[in-house]
Amino acid sequence: MFGKNFQKTYTLTDKGLKNTRKGAVWTVIVNLTVMAGAGILYLLMKDYMSVITEGKGLPAALPYILMLIVFLILSFLTHLEQYKATYGLVYSEVRNVRISLAEKLRKLPLGYFGKKDLADLTETIMGDVNRLEHVWSHCLGYLYGAYISTAVIAIMLLIRDWRLAMACLWGVPAAFGLLFGSRNIEKRNSERNKQAAVEVSDGIQEAIENVREIKATNQEERYLKSLFDKIDKHEKIMKHGELVTGLFVNGASVIMRLGIATTIFAAVRLIARGQIDFMTLFLFMMVITRVYAPFDQSLALIAEMFVSQVSAKRLNEIYDTKSYTGSEVFEPKGHDIVFDDVHFSYNSEEVLHGVSFTAKEGEVTALVGPSGSGKSTCARLAARLWDVAKGNITVGGVDISAVDSEALLKDYSMVFQDVVLFDDTVRENIRLGKHGASDEEVYEAAKAANCLEFIEKLPQGFDTQIGENGTRLSGGERQRISIARALLKDAPIVLLDEATASLDVENETKVQNALTRLLAGKTVLVIAHRMRTVENVDKIVVINEGKVAEQGKPQELYEKKDSIYRHMHDLQTFSADWSI
Q1: Looking at residue 327, what DSSP letter applies?
Q2: Which of 145, 240, 280, 359 could form a disulfide with 337 if both were Cys (CB 3.0 to 4.6 A apart)?
Q3: What is the distance between the alpha carbons of residues 518 and 2, in angstroms, rounded to a whole number?
Q4: Sequence-separated (6 or more) residues with CB below 8 Å from residue 494
Q5: How many Cβ atoms sit within 10 Å of the Cβ of residue 146?
Q6: Which DSSP category does 539 fall into?
Q7: DSSP structural state of residue 425
Q8: Contact 388, 401 (CB under 8 A)
């Protein structure tokens, strides 16, 4: 009952599975303890009936008082343990699951996050875990405990009188059969509801991120209408889902409680025939209320269990994503980056076809080529943000696919056009490059990156909060902070993705000066779109349609009249002259 399939279905950790078992056991004990209370009432009623029918004296009160006291103590203790085993222990499971998710995400390739919708990922980590927490704490232990305790009680009832037992219990499997029959409908509704919720989150996030563009183009009314349509759609789907769930849950409850009527009907017929006495009917009427009681809450929650399996599936998609594992020791002999017959595919479509080249240590190697040719893909593969489909990439003779990503990336610094900064101080944003770096080291890195001239003008200098993603800084200032971060890390391999493309001439010159300090003596792989920025590199690799079309020194490639590099260089030079 509580095996590996059960664990995966509800994405429980090993500890969570153990706690669920414990919760089910204590639920069984609680249900049987409560049933024992009904047994005390039955004994008291039996003695009272003897007084009426046989003229016996009133039964002694002390035994019943003692039984009642024992019952109350046991009831309190068992309910307390049940609470600890279901709520107390299961609430810690939320923490464990979120920690395990964080650990899993930490080990996933960085490229995974480029493909994953941010709102969808956030909804999974927060919303889906919350939904599962409610099922873990309120449903699993109660429901499976109710299954077991009902089976025990059913056996005792069948021994007492199988006819009344059948009349009493037939409604339970019928009710659950109706609910389990609706499982696929519930799952479909849940998936539609989930997708609609993500669309609303995406719409809100998009409107907030692009509020300036929306206002500048007078698109407020259109965006608001689109957002309201998404909210209305989500509300409609939620109402439909809740209506369907309510119909099935209430229908199951009605079916189950028909057992009361059939028990009375069967008992009356048996009493009329003299086959049972009134006390047997009384016993079954007390038991039937206790048999149904554990399911009262579970009937409402069992539909939630079906819905939770959709949330569990989304969590399992993260857990099942292949982690980039490998040796935690990375000791290359030098830092030459070698691509050897590298193939790579996006969604089964191959985008790199046998790429081979070498980026030597101490040299700057530029990847150029038309848009969509595979330049950025090569750079990301070089840092193992993805794994190659065929061929291999080595750094200093070590195959990077055999190295743990965290160990590998300690030797990499990356400076991209789209800078990511945190809503923190300038100092802490630079310190991200080297955990535990001293203030003096941060200062020297900022100085080398030409950051001091604007940092010293900020209200609190290095301790100034720069806003979300550095909104209080200009593009050139943000770029120089990212370079200071890379300088502080001082990694032997540097990946640049057109770090100066969006800057004006003045800022570009300052950033280029900072980059000169960063790149000295390192293995540098540059993705370039503007040919004038790579005229002085050591080597150019031209990528065209996922293949290496040509490679060599800039001057050598330019001297070839039919070279792609010369064509791109002249085209950009002509365009620049014409625009002037």
Answers
A1: B
A2: 359
A3: 56
A4: 412, 413, 414, 415, 486, 518, 519, 522, 523, 524, 525
A5: 23
A6: E
A7: B
A8: yes
Amino acid at 534: V
Residue 435's domain comprises 412-490
Cβ–Cβ under 8 Å, residues 369 and 93: no
Q: Provide the Cα torsion 77, 83, 89, 95; round to 10°.
A: -150
Could you give the CA distance from residue 489 to residue 484 in angstroms, rounded to a whole number?
A: 9
Can you name the residues that pair with 550 across neighbouring β-strands? Answer: 542
The number of distinct structural domains making up the chain is 2
What CATH number has the domain bearing residue 443? 3.40.50.300
What's the full length of the chain, in residues? 580
Kind and range of the H or E run holding 230: helix 220-272
Tell me the two tokens of residue 271: 């009493």
**Domain identity same for 285 and 417:** no
Between CA 474 and CA 506 the distance in angstroms is 13
Residue type for 315, please?
A: L
Cβ neighbours of 241 (radius 10 Å): 20
- What backbone phi and psi angles, to 5 degrees, belong to 229? -60, -40
What's this model's pTM, rounded to 2 decimal places?
0.63
- Among 320, 346, 363, where does a domain finish? 320
pLDDT in tens, 356-382: 999 999 988 999 888 888 888 898 899
Mean residue pLDDT of the chain comes to: 82
Question: Contact at 8 Å (CB) between 127 and 197?
Answer: yes
Least confident of 136-140, 497-501, 519-523: 497-501
Three-state DSSP class for residue 271: helix
pLDDT the model gives residue 391: 93
Written as six digits, the tokens of 434 are: 């080297």
- 398-399 vs 390-395, strand pairing mode: antiparallel
At 580 the pLDDT is: 36
Q: How far apart are CA 164 and CA 562, in angstroms?
A: 95
* C-alpha–C-alpha distance, residues 17 and 403, integer Å: 33
What's the rounded Cα separation, in Å, for the pair 264 and 168?
A: 9
